[in-house]
Amino acid sequence: MEYQGSFYRDTWVEIDLNHIEDNLKSIKKLLPNEVEMIAVVKANAYGHGDIQTAEAALRAGASMLAVAFMDEAIALRRKGITAPILVLGASRPEDINVAAELNLTLTVFQEEWIVKAAGILKPELEISVHIKVDTGMNRIGVGTRDELRKLEASITNNRQIRMEGIYTHFATADELDLSYSGEQLERFNDLLGVLDNLPRYIHSSNSAAAIRFPEAHFNAVRVGIAMYGLTPSLEIAAQLPIALKEAFSLHSRLVHVKKINKGEKVSYGATYEAAEDEWIGTLPIGYADGWIRKLQGQDVLVEGRRVPIVGRICMDQCMVKLPSYVPVGTNCTLIGSQKAETISINEIASKLETINYEIPCMISNRVPRIFKQNGKMLAINNPLLT
Ligand SMILES: *Cc1c(COP(=O)(O)O)cnc(C)c1O
User: Fold this and answer.
1) Ligand 1: residue whose CA is nearest its atom 10
2) How far is CA 163 from CA 190, 196, 229, 281, 329, in A?
3) Can you give the pLDDT at residue 124?
4) Residue 240 maps to a domain
5) C-alpha distance from residue 31 to each of 185, 186, 263 (Å)
6) What is the distance in A from the centroid of ligand 1 to the CA of 206?
7) Is residue 219 domain-shared with residue 333, that is, in the same domain?
8) Percentage of residues in the chain with pLDDT exceeding 70?
9) Domain encompassing residue 89
10) CA 107 to ligand 1 center in whole angstroms
11) Is residue 21 located within the same domain as residue 136?
12) Number of structural domains, the chain?
């Protein structure tokens, strides 16, 4: 029996790879020719699926990938990705040989780290690093001219460690007011001034800055959220010069439909009471799939109409109130479009009082991802059966 590439529950995510490619191509058009795109595919490509997204991004013209930590980079290498991969977060000096053997590019920001890692790196290996500069985010990065000078010197002194890049990260590039980003840019330029040699890659922009802050382009930009078709923030949504296309949609099917009498209760706690005789449908998705209990009351789409989730969301299932009888097996869209109706990721984010970034990330590994390209199904990724 062949289980791999299959799934046995009627709940799935669809990823439109054409949309990912189109979004990156639209961003590329906004950039001067010499500015390269680094596609940020951390967190399983923001929940979209790392390998398929990475391949789509490379097809669309990205020249490098970026992830948060080494395990994510190793996962991509194991799946056959040979393109450069930058690890954006902190790595341990003890792990430098693994990184070097897999040709991963690490982020560095402490002189002591270089000293320690240099003592561990096997003599036959080499590694590329990018220096992270802290210009106002206060997360990771070297923050002073003096520290940066020492860090550059310690890298330059080691023939096996190549300084391939230097970068910083904006805290507020998605806000209408770009003054704090301007201050960060000024600090970055000032710190670049202390280097004896400028490295191959200089980059500072996330999606928001790549799209709306050309002064910060340097020679590469790191594109995450916009590649997935999502606006970096609601406040700049209206002024984006390109139309982004959402790649992620979430689907399920009614597995049970029944009429309940006025006064009957639904789900745990019996908190929902039918105000009249009502049609109730059951969907096989729950909080263990990332469809969290706070989404009680949220609409889903059935036959192109909005219907609300009623009663508490269970671990694996939830119930919706249908306007009339609908057959078992009917498709239901929790994120995405049916006929003229759309439930966007932004709508779910607003219901949960959070940002759109969090929504595809929170749809768990239990939900298989189906990848579509040119209207055809390209692959199914179901980590449970892989
Ligand atoms: C996640 C991340 C990005 C991507 O940001 P988006 O807003 O999703 O484009 C870029 N740079 C760093 C350092 C990040 O951690």
Assistant:
1) 206
2) 19, 12, 33, 58, 56
3) 98
4) no
5) 18, 21, 60
6) 5
7) no
8) 99
9) 17-227
10) 14
11) yes
12) 2
Going by alpha carbons, the residue nearest to atom 15 of ligand 1 is 88
* Binding residue positions: 139, 315
Tell me what pLDDT residue 386 has. Answer: 84
> Within 6 Å (CB) of ligand 1, which residues are found?
40, 42, 88, 169, 206-208, 222-225, 232
The Cα angle at residue 380 between residues 77 and 319, in degrees rounded to 5: 125
Atom of ligand 1 nearest to the CA of 357: 8
- Both 84 and 192 in one domain: the answer is yes
Q: Which residues are part of the catalytic machinery?
A: 42, 268
pLDDT band at residue 5 under the 50/70/90 scheme: confident
Ligand 1 atom with the shortest distance to the CA of 132? 13
Q: What is the mean pLDDT of residues 199-208?
A: 98
Q: Which atom of ligand 1 is nearest to the CA of 210?
A: 9
**Would you say 369 and 48 are in contact if contact means Cβ atoms under 8 Å apart?**
yes
* Structural domain contains residue 233: no
* Mean pLDDT to the nearest integer, 33-58: 98
Among all chains, which residue has been given the structure tokens 């498709």?
A: 331
Q: Cα dist. 100→82, 167, 190, 340 in Å?
A: 13, 20, 31, 51
- Specify whether the backbone of 141 is left (phi greater than 0), alpha (psi in -120 to 50) or beta: left
pTM to 2 decimals? 0.97
What is the per-residue pLDDT across 216-264, written as a single tens digit (0 to 9) for each? Answer: 999 999 999 999 999 999 999 999 999 999 999 999 999 999 999 999 9
pLDDT value at position 4? 67
Q: What is the CATH number of the domain that holds 124?
A: 3.20.20.10
| Residues 332, 301 share a domain | yes
- On whether both 220 and 332 belong to a single domain, the answer is no
- Name the 3-class secondary structure at 203: strand
Ligand 1 midpoint to CA 222 (Å): 6
Q: Residue 1 — pLDDT band, cuts 50, 70, 90?
A: low
Whether 371 is in a domain gets the answer: yes
* CATH number of the domain where residue 357 is located: 2.40.37.10
Q: Which two tokens stand for residue 295?
A: 């989404």
Q: For the stretch 270-281, what's the b/e string if a residue is b when 16 or more beta carbons lie within 10 angstroms of its beta carbon?
A: eebebeeebbbb
